[in-house]
Automatic annotation (TrEMBL):
ARM repeats lie at residues 455-485. Residues 202-232 form a coiled coil. This is RING-type E3 ubiquitin transferase. It comes from Xanthoceras sorbifolium. Residues 259-333 form the U-box domain. Its EC number is 2.3.2.27. Residues 266-304 form the RING-type domain. Pathway: Protein modification; protein ubiquitination. Signal peptide: none annotated.
Length: 1029
């Protein structure tokens, strides 16, 4: 029980302490309200402060400290009340200082005093807020009052009137310039008197002088030299009014007062101190200088020489304050002196003044003063003159712009933007110039002016890749500020910077997107731009424009897509969006779609299919949808009746689909009506229509056993005649080339086709193409250089005429003398041309070999039939080999191939070129050459002679080259050939050894091992019972 009473007693003591503190705070509020009522300067601010403190007093009376103590805890409440008491006491001291003392000094330091009051008001608000009174169980009106007090004190601004600040500035100017102008001093005194509510008379001057002298003595006693200096200057100002005569004993020179007095200069380094410290004897020095003095082992004072009892350093805060105050005065003097210098026409003086101003103007009050002095237009004007310090000028403009929006507008109105951009272009002061632009671009109206300034946006974009990261970042920030404007975002994209463009596009409405897409379609894009444009949201937003009811949106979107699909990465991204293909198909299939939309959609689809590689083609669902029977049929329907420009795009689309997809080829081939329309398109007067129709026919024909799908007769005859006419009569090599390729794919076992080709001039045209590659050919004139593709396709078409099973077509061949040119293709043509030439020669030689072999057999049966009868036998086979009947004897066939009509590889001098052709390992050339040479080995009666001719033409060497480097099929054929050679002749030792080496290496190839082993066994290198068999 006693313990309980004891606890209650302690609690009572704690509450008593809190109550006493609470009452003390309440009394402080009453005194503070009383003392702030008759403030002269900043009267409105003090009155507002007084009202808030009075409300605080009312609130304190209404609240019970015990409840607060219980809610917040005694210790916390006590600490907060003590803080509030301290803050209120400090406010009273500031107010007392504000009201007492010299009125001149009051005016001079009014801003500083008011700033202190403003800080205190916020501190008091923070302390009241920390009690969290609104969370207590209290009346609503008290909670409202609490919030009002806190809000009022937090937002309170203590400011002197503009007139007061002007007077303070005039006082500063007068004392800093040591003005002794009596008339000026009197006018200033009158303004001071009016500001403080007094009369400008001798009484005022006397009172002020007395107070100032007393304060000066106090400052000197406290060794506050800077403050004492300023008070002396104010005394000098009052005496300069001549209202009161200065006593004789005060007639001292004051000129030195405007310069640093000795106490501010470090005796060691002879410079104005920035971090003054006192040593044990009382003298002060710059910290760094005295430390260096001590490091040298010195232990005496540099000034008085006394030995120091301690080397401890004490910061001289008072002296530092004096130095700072002197610096402020010096800065003011420098600024005032710089203004007329900047306005002078002397470049040296202007540059020197700019150096000073760029440093001082960073302080907001001097930025304001500079604007008041009219420096903004002058600084903008200085940007035109490269003889001046442009860097300093830009720095000044930056500080002015940073200070206020009003200054920004003034700078722009003076025409600064264009000059700043010019300096960015020059690159000498780009970082400073961009800094000015960045500050100006914070205002929307100015952003319009910046963005519309010539070359501004392209130059800023170019700076994004600047080596200076600071300049690059600032340029980025300016562009970011400008990017809210769609037109500026478009210009950035035109300059190669796309992120703002994409952001605007994604956020824009339909009309905005249409304009931006149209602009994008006209831009020149680079690979780095594509990285930005791959943005998924951007792609989806653009594709969705195809579903718009606005024709302009659709048109802009289609143009934009066409622009983008020139880049493979964009095709992938477009195809990755599941709506791309359906929306494009929708434009084509929708009956009411305008024809030009159908055309553009077809063009886009064709380009997308063309740009998509085969493995990827199978991955996208949209592309699979294009191959459906419905869509292929739709595309074919739109080909038939359409205008040429529409027909072209759908033919192009069908061609690209056919290249990539067997299903599409089969669907087209099976559509007989479409086939008929395709061949009728070959008679079109529009070259592009003919060309795309032929490309489609060729595409659906290649690789199919049945060859070209022809319309039924009489359309078939007309189709073949049209192809022959294009090859024969047209001047465009591309068209002729495709026609030749289609002719090569015509159905092989179709007598109607053979008959039409026989009657046509197709073979003559093929002859012309082959011969035109031979510069020595006489009789055929080539009006234009023939392309490689035309020659290759002409040779492919020739193969139809050299088929051994088609003697009628071979007879057509016999009427033309182009074998020499054909053989020369083996030396001059492409790999494909060589291959096809070798196949043609093989077919011709095969026919001859069979005939000669049959003739030889017949000769034996009739006991050496006379040559005349042999000639009659062969007369019906019109093959030509040579234009001359001379040299009728052949080293292989003897006189059997002598007739003019007989083709022979030996007589045609084709053996050596074929052997040389075997060194070409591309496109099956070597295999075709071996096939041609094998035709000489068909007749066992002439086999030895044929092998001798081939060996003499370096055939063994060529075969070994094939075995080393050829394809599997070529190597197989070469092994067979080598085996026949070894059966009928001996090869030289070097060739034998080389053959052995190559063949042993080939034993490692599974597919060839057995055949290689047979040859090695034949050579006596591998035994017949070898495991290789």
């Amino acid at each position: 029980m006693c313990s309980m009473d004891f606890n209650i007693g302690i609690e009572d003591v704690g509450l008593a302490v809190l109550q006493e503190l609470w009452n003390r705070v309440a009394f402080q509020t009453v005194d503070l309200v009383s003392e702030t009522r008759d403030a002269v300067l900043g009267k409105n601010s003090f009155q507002e402060f007084s009202r808030s403190i009075n409300e605080l007093h009312t609130l304190l009376q209404a609240l019970d400290v015990r409840k607060i103590g219980v809610a917040k805890g005694s210790e916390f409440t006590k600490a907060r009340l003590e803080a509030l008491d301290s803050q209120l006491r400090k406010a009273r001291e500031i107010v007392n200082d504000y009201k007492s003392g010299s009125r001149l000094r009051l005016l001079l330091h009014s801003n500083s005093l008011l700033s202190q009051m403003q800080d205190l008001a916020r501190d008091i608000a923070a302390t009241i807020s920390s009690f969290q009174l609104v969370n207590l169980d209290m009346a609503l009106n008290l909670k409202t009052m609490t919030n009002q007090i806190i809000s009022s004190l937090e937002s309170m601004e203590f400011r002197s009137a503009v007139a007061t600040e002007t007077i303070a500035l005039e006082i500063e100017n007068s004392i800093s310039q040591n003005s002794r102008n009596q008339e000026h001093s009197v006018r200033l005194l009158e303004k001071i008197a009016e500001a403080v509510g007094a009369s400008s008379n001798a009484s005022l001057v006397q009172n002020e002088l007395a107070i100032l002298k007393q304060e000066k003595e106090e400052m000197e006693a406290a060794k506050k030299q800077a403050e004492a200096l300023q008070l002396s200057q104010l005394i000098q100002l009052l005496y300069s009014t001549e209202i009161i005569t200065r006593p004789q004993n005060e007639q001292t020179a004051t000129y030195h007062l405007q310069y640093p007095i000795g106490s501010l200069i470090c005796p060691l380094c002879n410079e104005l101190m920035t971090d003054p410290v006192a040593i044990s004897c009382g003298h002060s020095f710059e910290r760094k200088a005295i430390l260096e003095h001590f490091k040298r082992g010195e232990k005496n004072c540099p000034t008085c020489g006394d030995e120091l009892s301690s080397l401890d350093l004490t910061p001289n805060i008072s002296l530092r304050g004096s130095i700072e105050e002197w610096k402020q005065n010096d800065m003011h003097l420098t600024f005032q002196a710089a203004i007329p210098e900047i306005n002078s026409g002397d470049h040296c003086r202007q540059n020197k003044a700019l150096e000073h101003v760029q440093r001082i103007i960073q302080i907001p009050k001097y930025a304001e003063k500079a604007a008041e002095e009219g420096l903004i237009p002058k600084l903008v004007e200085l940007l035109k003159d490269n003889r001046l310090n442009i860097k300093a000028t830009l720095k000044c403009l930056y500080c002015l712009a940073k200070y206020s929006d009003k200054h920004k507008e003034a700078i722009v109105e003076a025409g600064a933007v264009r000059h700043v951009v010019k300096h960015i272009c020059k690159g000498e002061t780009e970082s400073d110039a961009i800094e000015v632009l960045l500050e100006l671009s914070k205002i929307e109206t100015i952003r319009e002016i910046i963005g519309n300034t010539k070359d501004c946006i392209p130059v800023l974009v170019s700076l994004l890749r600047n080596d200076n990261p600071n300049a690059s970042q600032k340029a980025h920030d300016v562009l970011q500020n400008l990017s809210s404007n769609t037109h500026f975002a478009v210009r950035m994209a035109e300059a190669g910077y796309f992120p703002p463009f994409i952001a605007c596009f994604n956020q824009g409405v339909q009309e905005t997107r249409a304009l931006m897409a149209a602009a994008l379609s006209k831009m020149k894009l680079k690979e780095n731009s594509i990285k930005d444009l791959k943005d998924r949201q951007f792609i989806h937003s653009m594709i969705q424009m195809l579903s718009s009811n606005n024709p302009a949106c659709k048109s802009a979107c289609l143009k934009c897509i066409k622009k983008l699909i020139a880049y493979p990465k964009m095709i992938k991204r477009l195809l990755s969006d599941p709506v791309t293909i359906p929306l494009l198909l929708g434009l084509i299939s929708f009956v009411r779609s305008e024809l030009h939309f159908k055309q553009e959609a077809a063009e886009v689809l064709a380009l997308m299919v063309e740009g998509c590689q085969y493995p990827q083609f199978q991955l996208y669902q949209g592309l699979q949808e294009l191959q459906s029977e419905h869509n292929i049929s739709l595309f074919l329907q739109l080909v038939a009746p359409s205008e040429p420009h529409i027909k072209i795009e759908f033919l192009h689309l069908l061609v690209e689909l056919s290249y990539k997809c067997e299903k599409a080829r089969n669907l087209i081939r099976s559509n007989f009506e479409a086939i008929t329309h395709l061949f009728s398109s070959l008679e079109s007067g529009h070259q592009a229509v003919r060309r795309w129709a032929m490309k489609l026919i060729l595409c659906i024909s290649e690789g199919y056993p049945d060859g070209v799908p022809l319309p039924p007769s009489p359309g078939k005859e007309a189709a073949v005649n049209t192809l022959a006419a294009i090859l024969t009569c047209y001047s465009d090599n591309d068209e002729r080339s495709i026609a030749a390729a289609i002719i090569s794919q015509l159905p092989k076992e179709d007598n109607v086709v053979d008959e039409v080709l026989c009657k046509s001039e197709a073979l003559k045209a093929i002859h012309e193409v082959i011969c035109s590659t031979d510069g020595e050919f006489v009789g055929i004139k080539s009006t234009a250089s023939q392309s490689t593709t035309l020659l290759e396709n002409a040779l492919a078409a020739l193969l139809r005429f050299t088929e051994p099973t088609k003697p009628e077509l071979q007879r057509q061949l016999g009427k033309l003398e182009f074998y020499p040119s054909l053989i020369r293709v083996l030396s001059t043509g492409s790999s494909t041309a060589k291959q096809r030439t070798a196949i043609a020669l093989a077919q011709l030689s095969q026919s001859t070999s069979l005939s000669v072999s049959n003739a030889t057999t017949m000769s034996k049966q009739t006991n050496s039939m006379p040559m005349l009868h042999m000639t009659k036998l062969l007369r019906n086979m019109s093959w030509c080999c040579s234009a001359s009947p001379e040299n009728l004897f052949c080293s292989v066939h003897g006189s059997a191939c002598s007739p003019r009509e007989t083709f022979c590889l030996v007589k045609a001098d084709a053996v050596k070129p074929l052997v040389q052709t075997m060194s070409d390992m591309e496109s099956g050339v070597a295999e075709a050459a071996l096939t041609a040479l094998e035709t000489l080995l068909m007749d066992h009666n002439t086999l030895s002679h044929a092998i001798a001719v081939i060996v003499d033409s370096q055939g063994v060497i060529a075969i070994l080259q094939v075995l080393e480097k050829g394809s599997l099929s070529a190597k197989t054929k070469a092994l067979d050939f080598l085996q026949k050679i070894l059966n009928h002749t001996q090869i030289s030792d070097p060739l034998f050894q080389r053959s052995e080496t190559i063949l042993i290496q080939l034993l490692d190839e599974d597919a060839l091992r057995k055949k290689v082993a047979l040859v090695l066994s034949q050579m006596g290198i591998v035994p017949e019972q070898s495991s290789y068999f």
